[in-house]
């Protein structure tokens, strides 16, 4: 009874606390993280305050003794691609190197809310990849078998099993793109992108990391072949090591260090519908119709496809992309044809020739880059930060990212994941 009484008392206090702060417009709430002025120098400067950059800073502070750390963000925390994606998490990649890296990330996702003491709203509702042709099904069986050999969960579903899981989908043989089957990863799902950024930011701040917003890097200073710091809109900041994690703008930052990276920046568009009652409790992806859809906790349909064909840094959408994207989804779900679009956005992704990332040291001593995630960056957030922190702290690749170093573009040891990463996800 004492425990019950104590619990009731705490809940009553929490309710009154929320009400009191609501009336005062939350003026008495402490900030989730500090907003310090930049120090003259740090041991490690992380450039980029998105999910990957914040995760890198957090794991540097939590698992490696590297001294003082700062995260520099040109805008606000989570205002880049972290806030402009569709939140899908999975690890069912074809090649061993990719599968191991994404599986590590998925394992971290499964305990991330507890690790950060912040609810990132990770929902393991499963991810389904549809097959519409015999070749699609051959590819699905190949990838599913490869996943199982790597200890990654994967199932093959028949059209009847798909219909049982997703009654709203048209699996009729008369459909324009008949559904012949699908792979299904039950442990996949979605997370709340804002919560991921906030959770990592708060956790990093609690370990002494300086998170500095509105601080754009305008130059990378080198001395005797080694990095010595960064020029910013808030002055020069010295650093023994600089870790660059700026999705979509990696080539711009590389150019500041007189490096040329094999990446292209492309816009990636997505949209959400008006809220609906629950109709879709898993994630549906299709390379053939080139689209994917899930339903958010608020009831909105989250819809996307592949990157725009042109290169650029624009974050605005275009009607032709939206039209093609929506048409693809309506092929699978005719009942969605009457749903109204609520809003649309675009992000900027940098894509490598083999659809795999670069997580690597550079020829400049003390300068490291994490980029080229293409459309698969969000799902890798914790795993990316975990291995990149290891690389930066120890000046050597972790076994999980050793295959993703820059040298692969000169040795020819590419990892062609276009089949598993060829659609926005």
Features of the shown structure:
425 residues; alpha/beta; FAD/NAD(P)-binding domain; D-Amino Acid Oxidase, Chain A, domain 2; eight-stranded mixed sheet; 12 helices
CATH homologous superfamily designation of the largest domain? FAD/NAD(P)-binding domain
Q: What would the average pLDDT be, to the nearest integer? A: 91
CATH fold topology of the largest domain: FAD/NAD(P)-binding domain
Q: Supply Rg.
A: 22 Å
Structural class: alpha/beta
Biggest beta sheet attributes:
8 strands, mixed
Shape verdict: globular
Q: How many domain regions?
A: 2
Q: What is the β-strand count?
A: 18
The percent range for strand residues is 15-25%
CATH architecture of the largest domain: 3-Layer(bba) Sandwich
First CA to last CA: what distance? 49 Å
CATH class of the largest domain: Alpha Beta
Number of helices: 12
Low-confidence stretches: none
Explain what the structure shows.
By secondary structure, this protein is an alpha/beta fold. The protein folds into 2 domains: 41-87 and 194-263 and 353-421, FAD/NAD(P)-binding domain (3-Layer(bba) Sandwich); 124-188 and 265-351, D-Amino Acid Oxidase, subunit A, domain 2 (D-Amino Acid Oxidase, Chain A, domain 2, 2-Layer Sandwich). Helices cover 32% and strands 23% of the residues. Strands 1, 2, 8, 9, 10, 11, 17 and 18 form an 8-stranded mixed β-sheet that branches. Helix 2 (51-63) packs parallel to helix 7 (193-206), helix 2 (51-63) packs across helix 10 (381-394) and helix 3 crosses helix 10 (381-394). The protein is globular, with a radius of gyration of 22 Å. The mean pLDDT is 91.
């Amino acid at each position: 009874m004492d425990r019950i009484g104590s619990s009731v008392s705490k809940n009553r206090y929490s309710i009154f606390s929320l009400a009191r702060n609501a009336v005062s417009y939350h003026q008495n709430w402490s900030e989730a993280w500090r907003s310090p002025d930049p120090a003259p120098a740090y041991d490690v400067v992380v450039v980029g305050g998105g999910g990957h950059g914040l995760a890198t800073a957090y794991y540097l502070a939590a698992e490696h003794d590297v001294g003082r750390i700062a995260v520099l963000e040109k805008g606000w925390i989570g205002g880049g691609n972290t806030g402009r994606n569709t939140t899908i998490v999975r690890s069912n990649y074809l090649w061993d190197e990719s599968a191991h890296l994404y599986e590590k990330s998925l394992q971290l996702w499964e305990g991330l809310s507890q690790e950060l003491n912040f609810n990132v709203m990770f929902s393991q509702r499963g991810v389904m990849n549809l097959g519409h042709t015999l070749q699609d099904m051959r590819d699905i069986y190949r990838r599913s078998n490869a996943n199982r050999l790597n200890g990654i969960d994967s199932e093959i579903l028949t059209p009847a099993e798909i219909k049982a899981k997703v009654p709203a989908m048209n699996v009729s043989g008369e459909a324009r793109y008949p559904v012949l089957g699908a792979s299904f990863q039950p442990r996949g799902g979605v997370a709340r992108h804002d919560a991921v950024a906030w959770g990592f930011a708060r956790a990093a701040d609690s370990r002494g990391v300086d998170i500095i917003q509105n601080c754009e890097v305008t130059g990378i200073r080198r001395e005797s072949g080694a990095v010595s710091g960064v020029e910013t809109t808030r002055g020069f900041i010295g650093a023994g090591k600089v870790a660059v994690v700026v999705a979509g703008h990696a080539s711009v930052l590389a150019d500041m260090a007189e490096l040329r990276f094999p990446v292209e920046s492309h816009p990636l568009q997505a949209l959400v519908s008006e809220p609906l009652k629950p109709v879709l409790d898993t994630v549906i992806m299709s390379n053939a119709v080139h689209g994917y859809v899930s339903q958010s906790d608020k009831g909105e349909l989250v819809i996307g496809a592949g990157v725009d064909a042109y290169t650029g840094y624009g974050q605005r959408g275009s009607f032709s992309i939206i039209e093609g994207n929506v048409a693809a989804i309506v092929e699978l779900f005719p009942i969605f044809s009457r749903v109204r679009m609520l809003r649309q956005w675009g992000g900027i992704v940098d894509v490598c020739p083999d659809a795999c990332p670069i997580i690597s040291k550079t020829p400049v001593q003390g300068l490291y880059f994490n980029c080229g995630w293409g459309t698969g960056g969000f799902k890798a957030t914790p795993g990316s930060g975990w291995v990149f922190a290891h690389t930066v702290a120890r000046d050597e690749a972790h076994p999980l990212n050793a295959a993703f170093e820059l040298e692969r573009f000169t040795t020819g040891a590419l990892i062609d994941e276009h089949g598993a990463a060829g659609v926005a996800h």
